Amino acid sequence: MGGGGHQTDQLSAGDRGPYAVYTWEEVQKHSRRGDQWVVVERKVYNVSEWVKRHPGGRRVIGHYAGEDATEAFTAFHPDQRLVRKFLKPLLVGELAPSESSEDHKKNAAIVEDFRALKEQLEAKGLFRTNPLFFVLHLGHVLLLEALSLALLWNWGSGWINTILCILLLATAQSQAGWLQHDFGHLSVFKSSRWDHLVHKFVIGHLKGASANWWNHRHFQHHAKPNVISKDPDVNMLKLLVLGNVEPVEYGIKKLKHMPYNHQHKYFFLIGPPLLIPVYFNIHILQTMYIQRDWVDFAWYLTYYARYFSCYVPYYGFLGSIVLLTIVRFLESHWFVWVTQMNHIPMEIDHEQHDEWLTMQLKATCNVEQSFFNDWFSGHLNFQIEHHLFPTMPRHNYVHAAPMVRELCEKHGVQYQVKGLWEAWCDIVRSLRTSGKLWLDAYLHK
Questions:
Q1: Distance between first and last Cα of the chain
Q2: Residue 349, phi then psi, degrees to nearest 5
Q3: pTM exceeding the 0.85 threshold for the entire prediction
Q4: Using one digit for the tens of pLDDT, what is the confidence trace for 323-362?
Q5: What is the β-pairing status of strands 43-46 and 35-40?
Q6: Does residue 88 contact residue 95 with C-beta atoms inside 8 Å?
Q7: Residues 186, 391: contact at Cβ < 8 Å?
Q8: How far apart are CA 121 and CA 194, in angstroms?
Q9: CA atoms within 13 A on the CB side of 29
Q10: Where are the beta strands (DSSP E) in 98-142?
């Protein structure tokens, strides 16, 4: 029954009209593919058809089907007035007055204090961009690529120059990866249209990847970090088992796709070296083809046209492919160690329906601030602040961090900060621990 019993369960959303009221129990029934409702600020929306056109992909909304999506909605959309225009036709009613604004017994005090914190950060101007920061960042990426060509132009393609060229290109690709991340999160321009356009240029033309592929994958990670079956970043294709829950489940079911008790060793062979050159490249092409994403494919082709026109004269076609493969190999190591140091050692579990603050802090930690760490990781050493406020320009994370830490202390939420080397070692330690849990469950449960 919804609305204090004034309507029956048999009435559809269309029968009830836009001013109908619903209980959480009724909303939670609409959580299947093809029948998905979400709640934003107590308003109930039927997004079953809209998910097909959602710029962030269908899955990120699907992960909140039947739930309150208010905190995720405000975190992902910098221009909420624009987005509400798309929501308005989807409105089917609102929560009954007797219903709490929070579902699944979330802590209302944490939700309210986090909302107040975001308002304070906005008042301090921490969601405003310093254009010079991103101009300089783009400039140094272009400079690195220009230097690699200048080496070849002036001194030829000898071994020393080739090694220097590889290092310059790998650095440029890694730094361009952090830069596309900024535009993908709509954290640079006031207009999201410009963010989307420059994002396609950076990830497509400068990196040879797909903006939509990145958006649809990465937003799921932010929406439900370290949540099994919802965060694609913890879907290891049965090659690894992560956390304390999944290994035991695999062990009890006697699943042995790999010798998981040795995963902390073979991780070095299948993780850092292969993620970008093999898995990402295949998945990008597959996604663009399946989705018929010819715009992103055109941007993708401009990268390879530019790359081969620049390097074939020095290395030939096959030599240029070898050069690019080595660059991707180094870039992949850089990417994996930076992106996984904040997540793999943290809690990985099935859906717990936590508040936004609690969910992100369970799955995320920071790495100590320094000029090198900021540059090397693209400010993802402030992963906590980035996950809490994904549209905040990264140069402002350092200013937001003390206020976030204070809020965490108030509510007893753990705020972890590690050294860079410690964070990397924790990846391996975590894999070893998970492997032992699997083996114990496999043998004894």
A1: 43
A2: -155, 175
A3: yes
A4: 999 999 999 999 999 999 999 999 999 999 999 999 999 9
A5: antiparallel
A6: no
A7: yes
A8: 24
A9: 10
A10: none
- What distances in angstroms separate CA 305 from CA 288, 308, 312, 317, 330, one per listed residue? 18, 6, 11, 12, 22
Interatomic CA distance for residues 270 and 229, integer angstroms: 21
Closest to 44 measured CA to CA, from 8, 16, 82, 63:
16
C-alpha distances out from residue 400 to 87, 127, 392, 406, Å: 30, 10, 10, 10
Element (H, E) at 94: strand 91-95
Q: Determine contact, residues 401/382, Cβ cutoff 8 Å.
A: yes
pLDDT of residue 373: 98
Q: How far is CA 440 from the centre of its chain?
A: 32
| Model confidence band, residue 82 (pLDDT cutoffs 50, 70, 90) | confident
Write down all domains in the chain, each with its CATH number in brackets: 3-105 (3.10.120.10), 106-445 (no CATH)
- The helix (run of H) or strand (run of E) holding residue 67 is strand 67-68
Residue closest to 337 by CA, chosen among 390, 389, 376: 376
CA gap 55, 77 in Å, rounded: 11
Give the 3-state secondary structure of residue 16: helix
Percent of the chain's residues with pLDDT above 90: 90
